[in-house]
Design goal:
3 domains; alpha+beta; three-stranded antiparallel beta sheet; 43% helix
């Protein structure tokens, strides 16, 4: 019993007894567990929920985590933590997610779910259509991959399982920041998927050249989207915002005296928001004031605007407004104004 490892008076761990009974690694793990503040009976605790109660959906989540543990134990696992912020088309990110978590509706998966469908590959009409076969092992897919000179760059290889190969290729390109190669890789995958859908659902006539044309068109779109910097409107998720300035009042050639930064955070569940702002002296690069408060907001943008509003009110009370400009940074909105006493 766990209670046998506790000191009867204080309820703390009996360190000497634990180190006597268990190896050092196990003893250290036991001693690292935090003890309850009061004496309570032992109970079953489910680690996948905050309150320790068992839920079926958390059991399914735990199964998925174990099933796809390879993705998290990969040497380049840090790449996946920022995968959704990569400078590639959002369509491709969704495709990769569905491939890696076996949710792409290929014929094999649909048949497994009880949907009456012909699971034969629409390209070769020989083998069943699985994710690996569609994107790599089909003769047509192999021809498409071999149509380009990859040199030392990785491409999906047959000796490895497709999921391992797929994740390894993406991880390699992300690690080296080879965005053009990543465009080419996803362009071919996306062209295969689009053509497969056209053939299966609309009986479209295709050729290897037509698929390659689709692939080139899409990776060209991804490259142009990444280089796009003329407008703030409709920039795809994962691409950086250009830095622009617009004068709202006063002379833009007057050097800045004080800069104001602001930020807001919003809880969608209860509409609570927290906002803050600070002022920086441009001559000394030191903070000269600021503020924060809790409030209610209808959206994340609303919280940002409230932070700006209260910051400007603070500035009007503390400084005499001289001129202001709006700036949009790469990852967060920031405004600055020049003020004098």
């Amino acid at each position: 019993m766990v209670s046998d490892l506790l000191l009867p008076d204080s309820g703390a761990w009996n360190t000497s007894l634990i180190r006597h009974l268990f190896p050092n690694s196990v003893a250290s793990a036991i001693l690292s567990f935090e003890r309850p503040l009061r004496n309570i009976d032992d109970f079953v605790y489910w680690k996948y929920t905050r309150d320790g109660s068992f839920l079926t959906k958390t059991a399914y989540t735990g199964f998925l985590i174990q099933h796809f543990n390879l993705l998290h134990s990969s040497p380049a696992s840090w790449c996946w933590k920022r995968f959704w912020g990569l400078p590639i088309l959002p369509k491709w990110k969704m495709l990769a997610w569905k491939v890696l978590y076996s949710s792409l509706p290929v014929a094999d998966l649909l048949k497994l779910k009880g949907i009456p469908i012909n699971s034969t590959c629409v390209f070769c009409h020989v083998s069943s259509e699985s994710v690996g076969y569609l994107f790599r092992d089909c003769p047509l897919s192999r021809h498409l991959w071999d149509s380009f000179s990859w040199e030392s760059l990785p491409k999906p290889e047959a000796p490895l399982s497709f999921l391992v190969s797929f994740s390894a290729v993406i991880s390699r390109y992300v690690t080296t920041k080879n965005w053009s190669a990543l465009d080419r890789f996803f362009g071919i995958c996306w062209a295969i998927w689009l053509t497969r859908n056209s053939v299966r659902f609309r009986s479209t006539v295709y050729s290897p050249d037509s698929i390659l044309h689709i692939a080139r068109d899409w990776w060209d779109k991804s490259g142009k989207a990444r280089d796009f910097s003329d407008s703030l409107n409709d920039i795809p998720l994962g691409f950086s915002y250009p830095f622009v300035s617009q004068v709202l009042r006063g002379n833009p050639n007057v050097p800045d005296i004080v800069i104001m930064h602001f930020d807001g955070a919003w809880d969608q569940g209860n509409y609570n928001a927290g906002i803050g702002w600070c002022f920086w002296d441009t001559s000394s690069f030191q903070s000269i004031g600021g503020g924060a408060r809790a409030c209610m907001a209808a959206s994340a943008l609303h919280s940002e605007l409230q932070a700006c509003l209260f910051g400007l009110r603070h500035a009007l009370q503390s400084f005499c407004l001289f001129y202001g400009a709006w700036h949009q940074g790469n990852y967060s909105a920031a405004t600055y104004g020049s003020w004098f006493y």
